[in-house]
Specification:
With 207 residues, this protein is mostly helical. It contains 5 helices and 2 strands; from the N terminus they run E-H-H-E-H-H-H. The protein has a two-stranded parallel ribbon.
């Protein structure tokens, strides 16, 4: 193996990237059209009028024929491409808070199946400072004003919707975990071996 050759087991995928590979935000940003915004909002209002909630809404309750082609493209990009997309223009300005939740979950149902976020079985969580002090691991960081480090959530896809920008901070960053893996494999393959060992799982009082 030459000095420029990849290490055995190196991941080769569009999901392996560095920031310079996507320096132009237009490559990964999608702005919803007025018609698409209106269709998403209408589906959410109809679902709310039927008494549905984020826990009971189904894909068929949120039909979105207009942006169907875009949604299919996002699924391909998220599963077999660079693995991220930024959507602008989500119709939060057209909906109440409850309707916005339905719109967000309804859109997400076209991308995959929602899974529980915590021991309470919540399918949708709110990231905001609730004023609590994190005096134990049982207090989730997203309920505080503390900074979160890079981490992987326990699902295939993760979605975040910004309802109100933070007064200060509030920056979100993403990184290619497969690129991190390749770097670890090249620099410290002994750590890759550790990653492949069984790991103790702490439920943080959410048994």
């Amino acid at each position: 193996m030459g000095p420029g050759d990849p290490a055995p087991g190196t991941v080769s995928s569009p999901s392996v990237w560095r920031p310079a590979d996507f320096a132009d935000p237009r490559e990964w940003t999608v702005t919803l059209s007025a018609a698409e915004r209106a269709e998403i909002a209408a589906a959410a209002r109809a679902a709310a009028g039927s008494g549905l909630t984020a826990a009971t809404i189904r894909r068929e309750d949120a039909p979105l024929p207009g942006p169907a082609a875009k949604l299919a493209g996002w699924v391909r990009e998220l599963s077999a491409g660079r693995a991220f997309v930024l959507i602008r223009g989500f119709p939060v300005d057209l909906l109440s808070e409850a309707e916005t939740e339905l719109a967000y979950v309804g859109l997400g149902l076209h991308l995959g199946t929602p899974v529980s976020q915590n021991a309470a079985g919540d399918l949708l969580g709110h990231v905001r400072d609730t004023g609590v002090v994190r005096d134990s691991p049982a207090v989730r960081l997203y309920a505080t004003s503390q900074r979160q480090d890079f981490h992987c959530d326990g699902s295939d896809l993760v979605g975040l919707l910004c309802l109100k920008p933070a007064g200060t901070g509030g920056q979100g960053k993403i990184v290619s975990s497969t690129a991190v893996y390749n770097q670890m494999l090249a620099r410290r393959p002994d750590l890759v071996a550790v990653l492949r060992q069984p790991v103790a799982w702490d439920r943080n009082d959410e048994q």
